[in-house]
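U., I forgot to send this yesterday:
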Amino acid sequence: MFAVAVKTDCEHLAATSESDLSGISDSDLDTSAKCQQNSCEQDETWICLQCKKILCSRYANGHMLTHFEQERHSLALSFMDSSVWCFLCDSYVDAPKLASLTQRVPQKPLPAQ
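Result:
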């Protein structure tokens, strides 16, 4: 069986100020947004918590992973399930500091089968 460990502390999140997180507005949390990379139309998207760029997951076309590799922006929030991933820790992060942000993410409808 495979299990994902979720960190409750992350030095990269700790280095992110509360004002940076609160600077992400409700309009930035547009779960209907497509990936902003060129003409990518993927809708399994994440928002970069540093620059607010919306890009697709590593399991779609991997644009958020490429963004991390190029910009070193390590924290991203999934619009599918409101989880936060730290690329430097290679782990999900669930910390009280994130609650006010993750609770504001609208529920994204599941893709049609």
